[in-house]
Amino acid sequence: MSKNKFIPVAHPIFAGNEKKYVNECLDTVWISSVGKFIGLFEEAFARFCGVPFAVSCNNGTSALHLALMGLGVGSGDEVIVPTLTYIATANSVRYCNATPVFADSEPRTMNLDPERIEERITGKTKGIIVVHLYGHPCDMDPILAIARKHNLFVLEDAAEAHGALYRGTKVGGIGDAAIFSFFGNKIVTTGEGGMVTTRDGDLAQRMTLLRGQGMDPRRRYWFPIVGHNFRMTNIEAAIGLAQMENVELHLDNRRTVAGWYRKHLAKLTDWVTLPVEEAWARHSYWIYTILVNPAARIERDAFMQRLSEMGIETRPVFYPMHSMPPYREPDGTYPVAEDLAQRGVNLPAHGLLTEEDVAFIAEAIRIVCAGVEASSATAR
Ligand SMILES: Cc1ncc(COP(=O)(O)O)c(C=O)c1O
Questions:
Q1: Contacting residues for 258 by C-beta, under 8 A, at least 6 apart
Q2: What is the pTM of this model?
Q3: Distance 218 CA to ligand 1 centre (A)
Q4: Which one of 56, 61, 85 would you pick to mutate in the ligand 1 pocket, going by the greatest count of ligand atoms within 8 A of its CB?
Q5: Which strands, in side-by-side order, build the sheet including 165-166?
Q6: HEC string for the chain
Q7: Does any ligand 1 atom lie closer than 6 A to the CB of residue 59?
Q8: Are the C-beta atoms of residues 316 and 301 closer than 8 Å to each other?
Q9: From ligand 1's centre to the CA of 194, what distance in Å?
């Protein structure tokens, strides 16, 4: 294998009007959070998600915080969150002085298990945050049924799932609200940035007020509430609009990459488990997540280290929230999330990969697992 190859885990693509629109911001000096690109990006994103409202903000974490404030989460409330997620999902609940209550995942899609939700509901539960982890949508129908039965809101954390479909409907338009991240490694990027989408006009209005320091839109410097400065800049929105003009291309690229992985890893499925795409889902393949099987006879971290030595950057699946200091639950039992977190590896899935790169990654995985098998056979 080539010694000098380096395959990054993520890589943004600026193949359209990004530079042109950014230069327009600089030339017109509309560089802060006023300017035409904010509205244009919000409209394009709302249209893409099939919802009437999209409220931009400075990152996905703020989008979660904004949505929870807009949904009325406050002191003493509980919000059910999958333990297997990125820390921002849980932190946003804390920012509202509320408590994230964790639930286990289901093993196929790695998403919140609908069967594990009701046992976590108490008199204080206000809502559920579902996370479309790594781009695979959650099984929304049973979750929405539970939410209706207990009068709870459903917030979709779609930070990683732009363009994923649940039974033909785009994520972002299924729950009461949804959030997206536009960090540099995401399918659509603005550098840093976030968006909340919703069908609820009153919620959109509340969030717009909260995002802009709480300033009364009809009375300059009059602040009826305590708000935040969560605004996106016109420059970021300019990049976002250009990205949206090519969003179908960005999504197609990732599906193509996933197809190459399926083809090249097909012979290695004793050693690694490939990601599932349920019949009711369209995965957006933000990243390509595999599990290292016990038959591979190698620990996940050693597996990643070996790939790194061959020039392949990877990421471990997130640590479950209940295992980390801010949220530690020594007696918490989340066996599925723990198993996925211990064995999961995220492989590059960005649109600059070629089939040759994917074949190279598959061959590296074969060498790592076959090498371990050979050395353990010698040792016997
Ligand atoms: C599931 C999930 N939620 C929320 C976020 C927060 O987004 P941001 O990094 O834009 O604040 C991320 C970021 O990667 C994420 O993966």
A1: 275, 283, 285, 288, 349
A2: 0.97
A3: 33
A4: 61
A5: 169-170, 165-166, 281-282
A6: CCCCCCECCCCCCCCCCHHHHHHHHHHHCCCCCCCHHHHHHHHHHHHHHCCCEEEEECCHHHHHHHHHHHCCCCCCCEEEEECCCCHHHHHHHHHCCCEEEEECECCCCCCECHHHCHHHCCCCEEEEEEECHHHCCCCHHHHHHHHHHHCCEEEEECCCCCCCEECCEECCCCCCEEEEECECCCCCCCECCEEEEECCHHHHHHHHHHHECCCCCCCCCCCCCCCCECCCCHHHHHHHHHHHHCHHHHHHHHHHHHHHHHHHHHHHCCCEECCCCCCCEECCCCCEEEEECHHHCCCHHHHHHHHHHCCECCEECCCCHHHCHHHCCCCCCCHHHHHHHHHEEEECCCCCCCHHHHHHHHHHHHHHHHHHHHHHHHHC
A7: yes
A8: yes
A9: 9
For each of the chain's 380 residues, which pLDDT tens digit applies? 656 789 999 999 999 999 999 999 999 999 999 999 999 999 999 999 999 999 999 999 999 999 999 999 999 999 999 999 999 999 999 999 999 999 999 999 999 999 999 999 999 999 999 999 999 999 999 999 999 999 999 999 999 999 999 999 999 999 999 999 999 999 999 999 999 999 999 999 999 999 999 999 999 999 999 999 999 999 999 999 999 999 999 999 999 999 999 999 999 999 999 999 999 999 999 999 999 999 999 999 999 999 999 999 999 999 999 999 999 998 999 999 999 999 999 999 999 999 999 999 999 999 999 987 666 656 55
363 CA distance to ligand 1 middle (Å): 31
Amino acid found at 24: E
Q: Is 261 in the pocket of ligand 1 (CB under 6 A)?
A: no
Alpha-carbon torsion, ordered 53, 54, 57, 59, to 10 deg: 140
